[in-house]
Design goal:
Jelly Rolls, alpha+beta, binds 2-oxoglutaric acid, IPNS-like_FE2OG_OXY, metal-binding, binds fe (ii) ion, 328 residues, four-stranded antiparallel β-sheet, 21% strand
Length: 328
């Protein structure tokens, strides 16, 4: 199967070490609306830190399956997603915040790993992406309205929490064209920060269904908007479908950080965000209910599309639905 895409997609690159100026604000606003994806630089995460996480994680992924399966999916811990859950070529290790060290250590303990370096580097990475998420979220709120970052950050987003997924993609040995490393999905998060290695393969789907490559670039992280923010913003911010395609016979490695609302949060787009001339697209819903909906509909598979936030809480005032109901 050939996964066609157009090369490459030009996404704005945001310098997160600087305050937003008006031109970066408008390109960020356009990217959030059109693609739900953009890139960041000067994020303070060194290549060295990434390389350490890469080599320590590789040691874990290199263990025999029997050892890794002690971490999940059918064990108490559930930090490991083995091959053949999301895709035959994908496995993943989850590290939860805010105490990333404790989470990583609990996996290491089960594996009988004594060295504390794994949990130390993940704590450092986790704390850094957590701080970055707060900065980026405020930038995104600024695209919705003047002063919205002060108006809504504390009241709506201050209890957000994050978790990391360390992703390892192993292409099939007989790969001749391309293979799907991770199928089309949307993220459930408010926002996701991705560190992809130089192999590439991350693709985003345009509004008209074309797959676009997100070319890796050294020193650059990819940020994308997830379902929680799409619903909260009444679709002024887009949670795009994306996937990973494997084109080379080499392993691919990525780190994805998901910054999410707290489980008990009720997501309801504020009137001012919806705007007077628009109608609210989503019914209010509890975050955990959506997460459970996704998990229960996946039938064990990983974040599959078709059961996204629109299927769950959409169409509050959808005239089609109303007429369908009326005719029943
Ligand atoms: O591996 C990647 O580059 C992206 C992974 C991804 O989309 C996810 O984990 O949700
Ligand atoms: Fe994703």
């Amino acid at each position: 199967m050939i996964y066609q895409s157009e090369n490459p997609l030009q996404l704005p690159v945001l310098d997160v070490s600087q305050p937003l100026n008006s031109s970066s604000l408008s390109s960020l606003a356009a990217a959030c609306k059109e693609w739900g994806f953009f890139q960041i630089i000067n994020h303070g995460i060194s290549k060295d830190l990434y390389t350490k996480i890469y080599s320590l994680s590789n040691k874990v992924f290199g263990l025999p399956s029997e050892s890794k399966l002690k971490l999940g999916p059918f064990s108490l811990l559930k930090t490991y997603t083995p091959h053949f859950i999301a895709s035959p070529f994908f496995e993943s290790l989850k590290v939860s915040g805010p105490d990333f060290a404790a989470s990583a250590q609990s996996s290491a303990d089960v594996l009988g790993e004594q060295d504390s370096e794994f949990s130390e580097v993940l704590q450092e990475y986790g704390s850094k992406v957590t701080e970055l998420s707060k900065i980026i979220l405020k930038f995104i709120l600024m695209t919705l309205g003047d002063g919205f970052e002060t108006k809504y950050y504390d009241s709506e987003f201050k209890n957000c929490h994050g978790y990391l997924r360390i992703n390892n993609y192993t292409p099939p040995e007989n790969l001749d064209e391309e293979a799907e490393g991770l199928g089309m999905h949307t993220d459930m998060s408010c926002l996701t920060i991705v560190y992809q290695d130089e192999i590439g393969g991350l693709q985003v789907r345009s509004k008209d269904g074309r797959w676009m490559n997100i070319i890796p670039c050294e020193g650059t992280l990819v940020v994308n908007i997830g379902d929680m923010l799409q619903a909260w913003s009444n679709e002024r911010l887009r949670s795009s479908e994306h996937r990973v395609v494997l084109k080379k016979r080499v392993n691919r490695f990525s780190l994805a950080f998901f910054w999410c609302f707290e489980d008990e949060k009720v997501i309801l787009a504020p009137d001012e965000v919806v705007g007077q001339e628009n109608t609210r697209i989503y019914k209010p819903f509890v975050c955990l209910d959506y997460v459970k909906f996704r998990e229960s509909n996946e039938k064990g598979r990983f974040e599959k599309v078709g059961f996204n936030v629109k299927d769950f809480a959409g169409a509050v005032e959808n005239p089609m639905m109303m007429s369908e109901n009326g005719s029943n």
